[in-house]
Amino acid sequence: MNKFQTVAVALALGAASTASFADTGNFFVNGNLGTSDYRVSNPASGIPGVQSSLDKKDAAGALRIGYRWNSVVDYGVEAGYVNLGNAEGKLSNSLGQSYLKQKSRGWLLGGNLNYNINDNWYVSARGGWYRAHNAFQLRAYTPGGNFRSSSSTTGTGEYVGVGVGYNINKAFSVGVNYDNYHSNGNSSDVNKLSTNIAMYSVFGEYRFNF
């Protein structure tokens, strides 16, 4: 077989594969429910005379929709929304107490891959852009009076994640995921610096075609 025939056969096989894959895909909706872990440090650690604590974990959830094509490794696109709860720090000394809180939530756009180990089990990976809205709140209580302030920032970061899933049937699957969200800040203000937020969750997915 000469080079021309080899190329022709390769192109024909590629076209046939593309045509077959074009009809073998499905839409999906999946949801995650779990715990977020803000990778932030204690704002008052080591300051003399100040007692402080930091709660970095909170309930978190995400919802995604998309389309996935079936192949040796299934591949797809996804969009969605994630709520990563909040982190809260408490500081106190002889003059009073103050509370600092950060909330992060926003829109997702990215892609995903599923590798089917067998008919039931698969491993997955995903990644894309995270358009985060971060809200910050300060509350202070002192003998001279109380004080409150709030601010917010919006920025585009990224997210990546991995998971293990189990197909109950062709339409439904369940599993566990680990995701990391990079929440970009857009200011030199210490309250608006970028933050990495981990999320540990269980998920359920429903797949369908119109």
TrEMBL record:
One of its GO terms (cellular component) is pore complex. Keywords: Ion transport, Porin, Signal, Transmembrane, Transport. SUPFAM superfamilies: OMPA-like. It holds the Pfam family OmpA_membrane. It comes from the Bacteria. Residues 26-209 form the Outer membrane protein OmpA-like transmembrane domain. GO terms for molecular function: porin activity. InterPro entries: OMP/PagP_B-barrel, OmpA-like_TM_dom. Residues 1-22 form the signal peptide. Belongs to the outer membrane OOP (TC 1.B.6) superfamily. OmpA family. This is Outer membrane protein OmpA-like transmembrane domain-containing protein. The lineage of its organism: Bacteria, Pseudomonadati, Pseudomonadota, Gammaproteobacteria, Lysobacterales.
